[in-house]
Amino acid sequence: LSPRETASLVRQLDDMYQTVTELLGIPDGLNLFWGKASIFICSTSDQFRLIEAQAFKNMVAPGVIGLCHQRGPRVFVNTFRAEDDLQFASTLVHETVHGIMHRFISPSRLPTWADEGFAEYVAGRSFRGSPVDSNRRPQGLHFIRNGGDLSSIIEMSYEDGSWPGDHAVGYAVGYLLCTTMIEENSQGFADWVRAVKAGKDWRQALEDQYGASVDRLVEYVRRRHLTND
């Protein structure tokens, strides 16, 4: 990368870190990483896939241009420099958010829809021109307005291989769910995240910290987006 492009990406990542810390109430200036996160930006897809195979023992699915790996306390983000500048930047931010969340309070993860939806939310708000909202929102609205079952997305997980569903719809729905939660009650969302990261069952934390059951959240998001863009 040129010095100019490197500096631009550093600014975007700094802005992303600021977005996350402000939303979750992380003290300003606190470094969550174990030293530093290691970020690899490959010039080609072949280099990216080779690192994935050799360093992380991972076979990359078609279309993937970036991944975050956690090894104990360490965080590694591996990407390749896709031709679409904005898509590359949003992917880099998205994957680095996963690294931050790994280091926040504990390695415990949010449920898959929120783990990915929150990363998309941050990636959509960390730099001007981010394509996240224009990519995810129409797909999510189409899913809801054509009778898609939001509860089925909430039940998806990495572990059973159901995520992200047909045409990666889980990302779009997860984005709408997290965006709605944050817009309606950002403090409640932060409290919910903290409780889950501290070991509380996410469904119980949703009721206790956010003030809504899963069914109530699903129904609210469905009704809101049936008529509102």
Notes on the structure:
With 229 residues, the protein is mostly helical. It is built from 10 helices and 3 strands. The protein has helices at residues 3-24, 45-56, 85-103, 112-123, 132-145, 150-154, 169-184, 186-197, 202-210, 214-227, and strands at 38-42, 66-71, 74-80. It has a 3-stranded mixed beta sheet with strand order 1-3-2, sandwiched between helices. A hairpin with a 2-residue loop joins strand 2 and strand 3 (74-80). Helix 4 packs across helix 7, helix 5 crosses helix 7 (169-184) and helix 7 packs across helix 8 (186-197). The longest helix is centred in the N-terminal third of the chain and has 22 residues, at 3-24. The termini are far apart. The model has no long low-confidence stretch (mean pLDDT 94).
Shape: globular
Q: Calculate Rg over CA atoms.
A: 17 Å
Average pLDDT figure: 94
The share of residues in helices is 55-70%
Tell me the number of strands.
3
* Low-confidence regions: none
Widest β-sheet, arrangement of strands: 1-3-2
Helical segment tally? 10
Percent of residues in β-strands: 5-15%
